[in-house]
UniProtKB/TrEMBL annotation:
<feature type="transmembrane region" description="Helical">
    <location>
        <begin position="160"/>
        <end position="181"/>
    </location>
</feature>
<dbReference type="InterPro" id="IPR036259">
    <property type="entry name" value="MFS_trans_sf"/>
</dbReference>
<feature type="region of interest" description="Disordered">
    <location>
        <begin position="1"/>
        <end position="30"/>
    </location>
</feature>
<feature type="transmembrane region" description="Helical">
    <location>
        <begin position="66"/>
        <end position="88"/>
    </location>
</feature>
<feature type="transmembrane region" description="Helical">
    <location>
        <begin position="130"/>
        <end position="148"/>
    </location>
</feature>
<feature type="transmembrane region" description="Helical">
    <location>
        <begin position="470"/>
        <end position="491"/>
    </location>
</feature>
<feature type="domain" description="Major facilitator superfamily (MFS) profile">
    <location>
        <begin position="65"/>
        <end position="495"/>
    </location>
</feature>
<feature type="region of interest" description="Disordered">
    <location>
        <begin position="504"/>
        <end position="544"/>
    </location>
</feature>
<feature type="transmembrane region" description="Helical">
    <location>
        <begin position="223"/>
        <end position="240"/>
    </location>
</feature>
<protein>
    <submittedName>
        <fullName>Putative transporter</fullName>
    </submittedName>
</protein>
<feature type="transmembrane region" description="Helical">
    <location>
        <begin position="188"/>
        <end position="211"/>
    </location>
</feature>
<dbReference type="InterPro" id="IPR011701">
    <property type="entry name" value="MFS"/>
</dbReference>
<dbReference type="Pfam" id="PF07690">
    <property type="entry name" value="MFS_1"/>
</dbReference>
<dbReference type="GO" id="GO:0022857">
    <property type="term" value="F:transmembrane transporter activity"/>
</dbReference>
<feature type="transmembrane region" description="Helical">
    <location>
        <begin position="400"/>
        <end position="422"/>
    </location>
</feature>
<dbReference type="GO" id="GO:0005886">
    <property type="term" value="C:plasma membrane"/>
</dbReference>
<feature type="transmembrane region" description="Helical">
    <location>
        <begin position="296"/>
        <end position="315"/>
    </location>
</feature>
Length: 544
């Protein structure tokens, strides 16, 4: 703590502090101030084609990085549900009940809830590549540890920590896509990325079932996931590039400092002080305030948590319908998941089809996000989703009905899952630009526990109620949630005006200031800066 304006003839005075500062000659006083302006030493982008901005990279270079990031995401989501095929063999080998054995699935998903609390801020401090590459390596180690587990406790612990580190791509890749793609293409890129997030949990049970049924046994479901993680690590190490602009400019500033020995050269982010209290408020306290204090965040989060729970509940419901009721071989009975996979792809196509309309609305609004326009694909999905559930319930309950009928229901259900989930998160981000990361953190935290909990009661529910009424119960819940996007489309803007977190008034307030004095106020500048990344919405839609 210094007197920053000492008299020239006297050294600077220090107030008592627990830190021993020793600045200036012989530890007395302060060094002379810089003669040039502060801005003269700042390292910034030199233009739109500056390679420090990943958006300026060649398309092939972007595509290579996007492919590596996509594979990371696929491996992470694959690992969550590949274990579903190992539930029965693990139960038999370690002499535990089936529900207890299911903890290998649920603990992995619980890891999804805790990991982003560390990886999200880490990606903002150190860039995208370091946390993704490091987490991928540790994830691989835990997967091989799970494959060689000698007791049930070891298997459960390694599955949980594998889930913690697998959450890194889900928390960080959305931001990396935001670095790579501009307004016109980001929505399409994120839709494709989201497709991988949902395809992984549906395709891995198919592969896992055939592995388990073969002479390889259940341990190879973990071995193969570990091998995939090792491949992802190698790709991250050698092909993945850093995309975060702040980190790239910090490296440039460090290079200039080393070459010139002028240590005043820096990037503006290096002036920031990492405060543990601020990080606590941003990543723990604020998400809870948003979740329980904002009706939009609360209802959207509950809806997406329900959708996420259904996603993992199907891992138990489909074997009941196709293996138990129809007597199909357990490996072959997983093939109907292909219907859900096709549905996810269809849902991605629906979201992409609405992107041109959203971009037109965005440009007409001076690149300020129009959150309610995100809800149109979600409305389509909200109608499709319960239709798919009722179709599955009443066609799957009767073995006399051909297996293709409940399988085709997955196309409608999968499309509903993708459109609701992706656009709900995009809506939250567009509506809460300044605190979007915290809003998504709250959503991630709650939905992960829904995803972890639903499989635990799925078997009992479908056995006690029957497929028809258990599926119908889920369908009725889907109908109960269905009005949410329609209501927010009508009343969303009105609700945001009463929110202290949704920045709807920034633009209007600054517009009034601009009309009065002819200059844009700070609110407008901040709003445009945040809103300029259209799919700021899309960019972090699946963070964590």
């Amino acid at each position: 703590m210094f007197d920053l304006h000492p008299q020239p003839s006297t050294p600077a005075k220090r107030t008592p502090t627990h830190i021993d500062f020793k600045l200036g000659p012989n530890g007395r006083g302060l060094p002379p101030s810089l003669e040039a302006r502060h801005d003269d030493y700042l390292v910034e982008l030199t233009g739109e084609d500056d390679p420090a901005s990943a958006k300026s990279w060649a398309f092939r270079r972007k595509l290579r990085n996007a492919a590596v990031l996509g594979f990371d995401t696929l491996v992470a989501s694959w690992g969550s549900s590949v274990y579903s095929a190992a539930v029965a063999p693990v139960s038999k080998e370690f002499h535990v009940g089936t529900v207890v054995s299911l903890l290998g699935l649920t603990l992995y998903i619980c890891g999804f809830a805790t990991g982003p609390l560390a990886f999200a801020p880490m990606s903002e401090l150190y860039g995208r590549k370091l946390p993704i590459t490091g987490a991928c390596f540790v994830f691989t180690c835990f997967m091989f540890a799970a494959a060689t587990a000698k007791d049930f406790q070891t298997l459960m612990l390694t599955r949980f920590f594998a889930g913690v580190f697998a959450s890194c791509p889900l928390a960080v890749v959305g931001g990396a896509f935001s670095d790579l793609f501009g307004n016109e293409t980001r929505g399409i890129a994120i839709a494709a990325f989201s497709c991988l997030v949902f395809i992984g949990p549906f395709i891995s049970p198919i592969v896992g079932a055939f592995i388990t049924e073969s002479y390889l046994g259940w341990r190879w479901t973990e071995y193969i996931t570990g091998i995939m993680g090792a491949l992802a690590f190698v790709l991250d190490l050698f092909l993945l590039e850093e995309t975060y602009e702040k980190t790239l400019l910090q490296r440039r500033a460090g290079f200039y400092r080393k070459e010139t020995q002028n240590f005043a050269i820096h990037h503006i982010s290096e002036e920031e002080i990492v405060d543990v209290k601020d990080m606590f408020n941003k990543h723990l306290s604020l998400p809870l305030k948003l979740l329980f204090g904002e009706p939009i965040v609360f209802l959207i989060t509950i809806y997406t948590a329900f959708i996420y729970g259904i996603l993992y509940l199907f891992l138990e419901a489909y074997p009941i319908v196709f293996a138990e009721y129809r007597g199909i071989n357990e490996a072959v009975s997983t093939l109907p998941y292909i219907g859900l996979i096709l549905g996810v792809i269809l849902g991605s196509g629906i979201v992409i089809a609405f992107e041109p309309r959203y971009n037109r609305k965005l440009k007409a609004n001076n690149n300020i996000p129009v959150p309610e326009q995100r809800l149109l694909p979600m409305m389509v999905g909200a109608v499709m989703f319960p239709i798919g559930l009722f179709w599955f319930a009443w066609s799957g309950n009767y073995p006399s009905v051909h297996w293709i009928v409940p399988t085709l229901s997955g196309i409608i259900t999968g499309a509903g899952i993708l459109t609701i989930f992706l656009q709900a998160l995009n809506y939250i981000i567009d509506a809460y630009l300044v605190v979007a990361a915290s809003a998504i953190a709250a959503n991630t935290f709650l939905r992960s526990f829904f995803g972890a909990g639903f499989p635990l009661f799925a078997t009992q529910m479908f056995h006690k109620l029957g497929v028809d009424w258990a599926g119908s119960l889920l369908g009725f819940l889907g109908i109960a949630f269905m009005p949410i996007p329609f209501l927010f489309y009508i009343y969303g803007e009105r609700l945001r005006k009463h929110s202290s977190y949704a920045p709807t008034d920034f633009a209007k307030k600054s517009d009034d200031e601009e009309n009065q004095d002819g200059s844009a106020g700070p609110g407008q500048e901040k709003r445009e800066e945040q809103g300029g990344g259209e799919s700021g919405g899309s960019s972090t839609a699946l963070d964590g």
